[in-house]
Structures are given as structure tokens and as C-alpha cells.
Amino acid sequence: MKNNNGFKWQEQQEKKEKDLVEEKNTDHHQKEDQTPKVLQFPIKEKRESNQEAYFAGIIDGEGCIAYEKTKKDYWIPSIAVEMSDKDVIDRLKDFFGKGSVVYIKPRQKHHKDTWRWRIRGKGAVDIYFKIYNYLSDRRKNKITEVLKRYCDDANARDKYKKLEGVLKWHGSV
After folding, report:
1. Which of 61, 64, 101, 144 has its CA 20 to 30 A from that of 134?
2. Of all residues in the chain, what percent are helix, strand and coil, respectively (each to 5)?
3. For the domain bounded by 48-170, which CATH number is listed?
4. How far is CA 69 from CA 78, 120, 150, in A?
5. Using one digit for the tens of pLDDT, what is the confidence trace for 40-78?
């Protein structure tokens, strides 16, 4: 035989279980569908720094940072990204507000159509400074190399001496 305390404890447990079952039933069987509320993710504002990091990643992974020779036989810094995702290329141009987008026909029959965004000269240097902190060491070293060559080549021209001072202050050269 059980004493009164044993029955009270058993009654309390049964009541807790019953309450728990009723609570679960009311949670899962509400009149309105809760799915949209559960699956709704908070919308974060697109901050410019997040966008810079995103596009730096695109440039780091798919891009080319170079010091290229122009048709007029002088050298300038450049950035180019070529890919088959035209929407990403257009977003690069729109975000930085600079450069040009050109269509590249397939080089071989099994290749896709591609588009290239390219920026050269001062525009490329401006973008170097915006994305530098988000890049891999390999790309950072390439930018440093390009800027050093750019300053060395331009050193004879007085208008570029100020740029060299800015680069030294930034720590790139």
C-alpha cells in the first residue's frame, strides 16, 4: 500500500504531463499557420563595408590585379574580373561606379559567354584602397608590388609625388 504522499506525487506528475500535452497541442494546432513566422529571417541592411568585403572576395577569387602596358606605351594599375555571371559583373561596376563592362565571346566551342569588368589608372588605385583589408595576402602583396612600380615609374613626373606620399602614409609602399 502507498501512503498519501505517494498518491499526491503521482497525481502531481499526471497533472504536469497532462498540462504539458495540452500546451503542446495548443502550440502546434493554432488557427493560423505559424510557418512564415518561424522561417522569416531578419533582414539586415546592406552596409557598404559588407558590400566592399563581398566584392573584394569576388576580385580576390576571380579577378586580376595587374600593372599593364597601354597602347600609348606607358604602364598603369588595373583590376579586371571576367566571369559568365553577368549580373555579378554589372553589380561590380554599379557598386564601384567605375570601369567598363565588355562581352567576351567564347574562346572555344565548349566555353560559355563571359563578361569582363575592368578599371585602370587612378580608378583602380582608389579601389585598391577600398578593398585592401579584405584581400588575401597574395593579393595584398600584388597590390603593393603594383603601387610600388606605379610610384617608381611616375616619380619622374611631379604630379605623382603626392600619390607616393599617400602610399607611404597608408603603409603600402
Report:
1. 101
2. 60, 15, 25
3. 3.10.28.10
4. 10, 11, 11
5. 444 445 555 688 899 999 999 999 999 999 898 888 999
To which residue does cell 500500500 refer? 1
Gap between the Cα atoms of 55 and 67, Å rounded: 20
The enclosing H or E element of 104 equals strand 100-104
Q: How far apart are CA 156 and CA 81, in angstroms?
A: 31
Q: Kindly report the CA angle at 169 between 142 and 79, in degrees rounded to 5?
A: 30
> Which residues have C-beta within 8 Å of that of residue 103, sequence separation ≥ 6?
113, 114, 115
Summary mean pLDDT of the chain: 78
Burial tier of 35 (Cβ tally within 10 Å: 0-12, 13-18, 19+): exposed
- DSSP string across 41-85: PPPPP--HHHHHHHHHHHHHHHEEEEEEE-TTS-EEEEEEEEES-
Phi then psi for 81, rounded to 5 degrees?
A: -135, 125
Count of alpha carbons within 13 angstroms of residue 69, beta-carbon side: 2
4 burial level (CB within 10 Å; 0-12, 13-18, 19+): exposed
Check if the beta carbon of residue 82 is closer than 8 Å to that of residue 58.
no
